[in-house]
Amino acid sequence: MNTSSPKPTNAPAEPRLTSLSHGGGCGCKIAPGVLSDILKTTTAMPLPPELLVGIETADDAAVYQLNADQALIATTDFFMPIVDDAFDFGRIAATNAISDVYAMGGTPIMALALVGMPINVLSTDTIGQILAGGAAVCKAAGIPIAGGHTIDSVEPIYGLVALGLVHPKRVKRNADARVGDRLILGKPLGVGILSAALKKEKLGAEGYARMIAVTTQLNTPGPDLAALDGVHAITDVTGFGLAGHGLEVARGANCTVDIDWARVPLIEGVRSLAEQGMVTGASGRNWAAYGSQVALSAALSATDRALLSDPQTSGGLLVSCAPEAVEQVLAIFRRHGFDGAAEIGSVASADPAGVRMRVR
User: Fold this and answer.
1) Strands (E), 71-191
2) Quick one: which of 49, 94, 233, 294 could link to 320 by a disulfide (CB 3.0–4.6 Å)?
3) Torsion of CA 317, 74, 211, 311, to 10 degrees
């Protein structure tokens, strides 16, 4: 879809948005290994007791307790274009940013826009459509864009600071999984594969429609999931892929995550595209950073490995819950329109060999 107004016939054609970015969507993230090295150099600061969640477990957002009944969730996310349609780019970026509030079990309350644009390359109309896409998603989430910041940038960058509220007792960290828990994934995998195909002009209209449907679906089940006693941990699967974010769960809880690969939902058509080489560079960087902590069944192929590490932009919630809560969790997902949510694995005791994830 292209919602921008027609340009004068004598106006120079604008470049494709994805041609202006060296990496699209959450594939722009700094590789996990590099990020770990960078963060090693940061100086630890005294933390107030009101800070319920900080950077200690690489969680989705910071959480600060305001009073006995309210805690503030604060997060930010922004990236370069993953699609060429300006309005869709704005929608995807906003959906992705707000997701971190839902992943903590919270309800979003407002957002601030983060905008960096090459103003000598893109028209004000195109930039306006990016912002309009973000505003449309915020309206759907029931929150205002209350401000923000803009800069002239070499590459197009758009995202949000997202703020939300949650009861302190309902905060869901990524580090609180328990041995014996079951794992539920809310959205199918494959966004990075589709984005690679799009950039190479190998993605058809149906594949693009599937990509937009997945990446613009707000993770609204978060607060309802957090209200269940049987739900112990929640995160969302984004730039580090299912393996990367599953490993964060495993490290935080000092456990091993077992994935039943046959049960992991995939976006229709992505396996075929991956077999054709439509794989992002971020997938390889992800695997290089954490592949040593993943034990793969001999039956799994290089394509399976690429899908495990495929960067998901605006991916699904990954929920760790007690076995008796599985049906309730799936029912909440279905009530919010996530009909493809599936149980994909379980949580086991820590492996003495240091393996944090087993995929069979």
Assistant:
1) 71-79, 107-117, 145-152, 157-166, 182-185
2) 233
3) -70
Kindly report, residue by residue over 158-189, the tens digit of the pLDDT. 999 999 999 999 999 999 999 999 999 999 99
User: What is the pTM assigned to this prediction?
Assistant: 0.91
Amino acid, single-letter form, for residue 157: I
Which of these, 318, 334, 338, 319, lies nearest to 231 by C-alpha position? 319
Which is nearest to 100 in space by CA: 139, 56, 61? Answer: 61
Rounded Cα gap, residues 225 and 321, in angstroms = 10
User: Which residues have C-beta within 8 Å of that of residue 75, sequence separation ≥ 6?
Assistant: 60, 61, 62, 97, 100, 101, 161, 162, 163
CB atoms within 10 A of CB 123: 16
pLDDT in tens, 326-342: 999 999 999 999 999 99
Dihedral sign from CA coordinates of 278, 241, 109, 75:
negative
Q: Which of 225, 120, 224, 108 is nearest to 160 (CA)?
A: 108
Task: State yes or no: is 28 an active-site residue.
Answer: no
Do you know the residue count of the chain?
360
Question: With 0-12 CB in 10 A as exposed, 13-18 as middle and 19+ as buried, what is 148?
Answer: middle
Q: Which of 26, 138, 255, 321 is catalytic?
A: 26
Give the C-alpha separation, 216 to 136, whole Å.
11
Q: How many helices (H) and strands (E) does the chain have?
A: 11, 13
Q: How far is CA 285 from CA 27, 246, 277, in A?
A: 10, 16, 16
- First-to-last C-alpha distance (Å) of the chain: 39
DSSP class of residue 168 equals G
Residue 283 sits at φ, ψ, to 5 deg, of -60, -45
